[in-house]
Design brief:
With 208 residues, the protein is α/β, with parallel strands linked by helices. The chain contains 9 helices and 9 strands. The protein has helices at residues 2-8, 24-40, 57-68, 82-91, 108-121, 137-141, 148-154, 160-168, 196-207, and strands spanning 13-17, 20-23, 48-52, 72-75, 96-100, 127-131, 146-147, 175-180, 190-194. The strands form 3 sheets. The protein has a 5-stranded parallel beta sheet with strand order 4-3-5-6-7, with helices on both faces. Strand 3, helix 3 and strand 4 form a beta-alpha-beta unit. Helix 2 (24-40) crosses helix 7 (148-154) and helix 4 packs across helix 5 (108-121).
Length: 208
């Protein structure tokens, strides 16, 4: 979808966040950088990637990048606290977790550190990436975590051809997103979404 939009409307605004802007062409390039970073980090087709952050450009980049490399996005509710996040990351069998360090008074990094024992007991998580907004404090809080810039920079080892080959291998019926219910009457449950609903959305938009 992003590549198509970049071809059709390369100079139009795609993402606006505070005083920063990305055109569709720039968004496509950023998605590819993150996609390569995920591949370099060992994210294979079919792997689950948990994302715990507020509305930010990096959320958008990661969502499209995960789909492009065949990974399944597991978005975590920003109202979660340590126990909720631990349950969801473990239950979803996420191999990679990307989190924001802090948003206002909410210290996501500290909660991730608190949840590590429960998450790691599930035996699936291999790496935690922290998006730094506080001068490195968040990355330091989560033992063994790497930074967002480090993740993206690692993608330099992946070629355009390798990314294109991976993207071409993705089936429309592969999992694109595992979205968890609120869990108001019990534990949250993961709802599976393939890539196919994107076509349904486009058809409805065309009809309207």
């Amino acid at each position: 979808l992003v590549d198509r939009a970049a071809r059709l409307w390369p100079g139009r605004a795609a993402v606006i966040f505070e005083d920063r802007r990305w055109t569709w062409a720039e968004l496509a390039a950023e998605v590819d950088r993150v996609a390569k970073g995920l591949m370099a980090a060992g994210v294979a087709s079919g792997d689950h990637v948990a994302v715990w952050m507020t509305n930010r450009p990096e959320w958008v980049f990661t969502m499209f990048a995960a789909g492009k490399v065949g990974a399944c996005l597991v978005p975590l509710n920003t109202r979660y606290r340590a126990d909720d996040a631990a349950f969801t990351v473990a239950d979803s069998q996420a191999s990679l977790m990307i989190t924001l360090d802090r948003s206002g008074p909410i210290d996501f990094a500290a909660m991730v550190q608190d949840a590590r024992t429960q998450i790691e007991a599930a035996g699936h998580l291999r790496r935690i990436v922290v998006l730094d907004t506080t001068g490195g404090q968040g990355v330091a809080t989560v033992q063994g975590a790497s930074g967002w810039d480090e993740l993206v920079a690692g993608g330099a080892s992946v070629t355009d051809a390798e990314l294109a080959e991976r993207a071409a291998s993705i089936s429309v019926d592969q999992l694109m997103m595992l979205a968890y219910t609120s869990g108001t009457t019990g534990k949250p449950k993961g709802v599976q979404h393939s890539h196919r609903p994107l076509r349904n959305v486009r058809e409805r938009a065309t009809m309207w």
